[in-house]
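Section handout 9: paired folding examples.
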Amino acid sequence: MEFLYFILVLIIWLYVEKIMYKKPLTEKEIKKYQKFLDDIGQKAKEEYNLEWNYDAKEELLKERKKIKSFILICSGFFIGIISTMVILPIAVFSFLHIILISLNCFFLILLGLLKWPRKK
């Protein structure tokens, strides 16, 4: 039972890092999003006199990183909530279980926070 938490955390981490968004961005996606960003930039320039220039590829990669980190953070919270509400009352109550659940949840949340894209 103690290693199930570790295996679950490892599976979630490997899924997010290796499988999720495995295929690279296509030129079609980048062009479509760049057109969208250019339209917003033109509108901001006309209405508010703001210079707004963003790179579509960079923004799409940031969005992918945000989604990955959000999934890691949420999975850490959900493992903690589900474990304390469902698994702990059924299993033999032990301090070791609480420590392992807390460490695994903290590990996933920390990975998610470290993966969150930062502003330059």
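Moving on to protein 2 of 2.
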Amino acid sequence: MNNFFDSKHKVISTLLLIVAILLGIYVFATGKNAAEQNREQRIPEITRTSVFICDTNAMEVDYADDIVIVRLSDKRQYTLEETASETGRRFSNEVVGVSFWNDGDKATFEENGAVTFANCNLVSID
């Protein structure tokens, strides 16, 4: 009878070990690296909000260090990270293919390389 319990105990122990290993592999394979976790957990502190009126639409932009949150007049919203720019400041999200450029009181918004919010002029700053 002891052999029965010993072999049953070994089987249960082996199964638990296999489950633990598989769970560890799953967590490792689906987990995010530290940079991705930090980016997602980062809550930007808004330093100012600007409103731009464009040719046929408008946008509101929250600035937070190297990030902007752009709210378009058609209710879409994007969070963009600062990228290199020859003049002014440029922010983009390559994943969704959008970018926002601002130089002084002028701005544009592009989608997939085409300017969709053109001739935007600053009308207010909070």
